[in-house]
Write a structure and sequence with these properties.
- The longest helix has 16 residues.
- This protein has one domain: UDP-N-acetylmuramoyl-L-alanine:D-glutamate ligase (3-Layer(aba) Sandwich), CATH 3.40.1190.20.
- It is built from 10 helices and 14 strands.
- With 325 residues, the protein is an alpha/beta fold.
- The strands form 2 sheets. It has a 10-stranded mixed β-sheet, with helices on both faces. Strands 3-2-6-7 form a 4-stranded mixed β-sheet.
- The chain starts with a strand and ends in an 11-residue tail after the last strand.
Length: 325
């Protein structure tokens, strides 16, 4: 069984390593920089492919775009819809202590014909796939409810659907009704607060508020919620009443770019292997931690992922993460 990812707003991710803390107005002597093909769905695809699983990446890009060449060099299977301008470049400034500052370009607008071509490619490859992952921001001018339309279009294929997005597209998805609810939603604490209509500080300070917000997602039709908590690991809640917390192993953080995407990849890979809810959470947290220990937007190989070092506990109270973002 394969995984299909859609990255509507892909990017070339350029990582610039600073010698010390960022100082506005100063001159910094950078360490060697790196450029990787990126965007949330692309990062998921790269991590899935690195594990040897079958994945198809759907994205808008011209055949001669640098991101297409880079993904082809990695051996990824692509389904592209051509656009008339280059894929955007995102910049990440990393400091020695792991602090990252991101500067993201808006991306190329997608006209109706391009959106239709992307939707058709997703539906075509979803037939027979285990998962379709709709990931990332939407380009300028894209209808905010487009993810909801895609969920409805993919549902008849039988593939399960994961969504990882934020802000207005996330709010529009959950407002579209139960028929547009994905099987898996992967918010972080900031995005969960957006959905709950509260502040991230309140969600972080009050675990019961976080659980109440997760419960609302289930009421709206979301089967599973993978709440990522950065250095504190993650929670997994299912509509069947299962709830698990997981703490990551101790690592030296080098870059958090793409860590959440690798968490989603770890979850999907464990599901392909028939893993239980606890197994899927363990794999998600292990992959996220492995990603954060690597430079730039590099994705881990299975050999770099330490699943046994992740502590998974049933329930929430007592041994749960502190919910710091």
């Amino acid at each position: 069984m394969s995984i299909v990812t859609l990255t509507a707003n892909p990017s070339l991710d350029r990582t610039l390593s600073l010698p010390g803390p960022l100082e506005r107005g100063s001159v910094a002597r950078l360490a060697p920089s790196s450029t990787e093909p990126g965007g949330k769905g692309v990062n998921v695809s790269r991590a899935v492919a690195a594990a040897g699983a079958d994945v198809v990446s759907v994205l808008p890009a011209a055949d001669d775009d640098p991101i297409v060449r880079a993904l082809q060099q990695l051996g990824l299977r692509l389904a592209t819809a051509p656009i008339g301008q280059p894929v955007r470049t995102n910049y990440t400034l990393t400091e020695p202590d792991g602090t990252t500052t991101k500067l993201n370009e808006p991306g190329a607008p997608l006209d109706e014909a391009t959106r239709s071509a992307l939707a058709a490619a997703v539906a075509e490859h979803a037939a027979g796939a285990r998962w379709v992952a709709l990931c990332g921001s939407l380009p300028p001018g894209t209808p905010l409810d487009w993810y909801a339309d895609l969920v409805r279009a993919v549902r008849p294929t039988g593939a399960r659907i994961a969504v990882d997005t934020s802000e207005a597209p996330l709010l529009a998805l959950l407002a579209a009704g139960p028929d547009a609810a994905p099987d898996l939603l992967k918010p972080n604490t900031e995005e969960l607060a957006q959905l709950a209509g509260t502040t991230e500080a309140e969600v972080v300070a009050d675990p019961e508020a976080a659980l109440a917000a997760v419960a609302v997602l289930h009421e709206r039709g979301v089967r599973e919620v993978l709440l990522t908590l950065g250095a504190d690991g993650a929670l997994l809640s299912t509509a069947d009443g299962e709830l698990f917390s997981a703490r990551p192993p101790a690592i030296t953080v080098r870059s958090t770019v793409g860590a959440g995407d690798c968490s989603l990849a770890g979850y999907l890979l464990a599901d392909l292997d028939g893993g239980s809810a606890a197994d899927r959470l363990r794999s998600a947290v292990a992959y996220g931690a492995a990603s954060a220990s690597l430079p730039g937007s590099a994705v881990p190989t299975p050999a770099q992922v330490d699943g046994p070092a992740v502590r998974v506990t049933p329930g929430f109270a007592g041994s749960a993460p502190s919910l710091s973002h």
